[in-house]
Amino acid sequence: MKLAFFITFLAFAVTRGIESNAQSRPNIILIIADDLGWNDLGCYGNPAVRTPNIDRMAKDGIKFNNVFVTSSSCSPSRSSIITGRYPHSTGAAELHTPLPAGMTFFPEILKRNGYYTAQAGKWHEGPHTRRAYDTLITAARSGVGGEEMWLALLKDRPNDKPFFFWFAALDAHRPWQPDSALQPHDPSKVIVPPALADTKETREDLAAYYNEIARLDRYIGQINDELQRQGIAENTVVIFMSDNGRPFPGSKTRMNNAGVKTPFIIKWPQSGKKGRECNGLISAVDIAPTLLEIAKAPPVPSIQGKSFTSLFKDPGQSFREYVFTEHNWHDYEAYERAVRTKDFLYIFNARPQFSNQGPRDAVNSPSFKSLLAAREKGELTTPQKDIFLAPRPAEELYDLNKDKDQVNNLASDSRFAAMKKKLSGVLTRWQNETGDTQPVGLTPDWYDRITGEKTDKDKVRGEMPGKSKGAGNGM
Predict the structure, then answer these.
(1) Which of 1, 26, 35, 361 is least surrounded by Cβ atoms within 10 Å, i.e. has the fewest?
(2) CA nearest 121: which of 216, 41, 28?
(3) Which residues does residue 29 pair with via DSSP β-bridges, in sequence order?
(4) Per-residue pLDDT at 18 exceeds 60
C-alpha cells in the first residue's frame, strides 16, 4: 500500500510539475481573419454585423485603434507578420509569392524555445514556413471557413509545453460560403461604405460578407469557452486581427484606412488590463518582436519591428511616430508606398497611369457591377469615381482628423506643402534604410481591370521590389 501510494504521489507531483512548467510562460493564440475591414465589427462601430464574441474580447482586453498591416494584400501582409519585416524586405512582396528559406519566422523561434507550435486554416506564406510548426493543418482540412480544426488542436495539444497557435480563417474571403447554422444578415440593415453604390445587389453582397464574419465570431466564442474549460484562460494571450481590408472596391489593395487599417484586440487576463483602448500607432511588423518578448524568447536581429509590450502597462502612451505600408502586384501591376502619422497620410504612386479598382475578386463582385451601372448613368459620387480614376495622382496627402474616408487629396494645396515635403522625405529615408527599390519591369496585369478576364499576356513575374539590393535575404 505504501509503495502504491508513493507511486501515485510521484505521478501526481510530476504531472503538477509539468503543468507548472508549461504555464511558466503564457500560451499565445493569434487569430487572423481574411479580408475583414477594421470597422466591420460591433466593437469598432458597426451595429449591423453580429460579432458578440469579438466584442466580448474587446470588453475583456485591450482594443487597439491604430494598428496597420504592411500591405493591403493578403500573402504579403501575412509574410510581414510572420517575419517582422516589410514586404519588400521579405523576398515575397507580391501576392502568391513564397517566403525564401533564409527568412526567420517568429513561430520557429518559439518552437526552438520550448513552445508547441501549430497552424490551422489558410496557409499562405510558402512551404518553408512549414518548419515553424509542430503541426500544420492546411485549408483543405479546415472546413469552408478555415476554422473547423481549431478546437481539436486546442483540446489535443501536449500539456507539458506552452503553446502558440496561428489560427488563420478563410472567412471573410470571397467566394461566399453560406452557413445554415447561422441567421443570415438582413441586406436592408447593412452599412454601405461610401465607395460602393447603394443598390440591392451591393447590399446582398455585403450581407453575405457579414455572414462570414459572424461564422468566424462563432468559432472565436468556442475557443474562449474551451480556454475557460481547461482553466488556462488567465495565462493565454489571444489576439484577433485581419490581414487587410474588406474584399470590395475601395478597400482591399488600397493604401487608405479601408485597405490597411486592421482591427486588433488582445485579451490577456494575466496582464491586468481590461476594457482599455490604445490609440498609439502600431505596425504589423511589431507583432513578432512583441510575442517573442512575451514568450521570453530571444530577439531576432532581422526583425524590423519593435515590441509594444510597454502598451500593456500603459495603453494611453504613444508608440510610433510613423507607420509605413506598401502595395505591390495583386492581380494587377502596382507600386505604391505610404507613410502615416496620427494626423496625416502621404501616398506615393510610381504607377499613376493605372486605376485601382480593387483585386480581381472585387472586380467580379456584384458590388463592382453596381458601380459600373452607376458610372454608365453618370451617378457616381466622388469616392466612387476614385475607383475608376486613371491616371491617378502620383502623390496623395490626407488630413486624417478631418477626412475619415480619405477623399480630399491635399497634395496640391500650398498650405500643406511643408507637410507633404516632410513626409515624402521620411518615406524616401525608410525606403533607403530597408532596401526598397523601384524596378522598371514589375509584374504586369494578369487580368483586365474592368472585366476581370485573363489578359492575352503570359502570366510572368517581373522583378521583385527590393531584390536588386538583397532586401529579401533576411539580413
Answers:
(1) 1
(2) 216
(3) 165, 238
(4) no
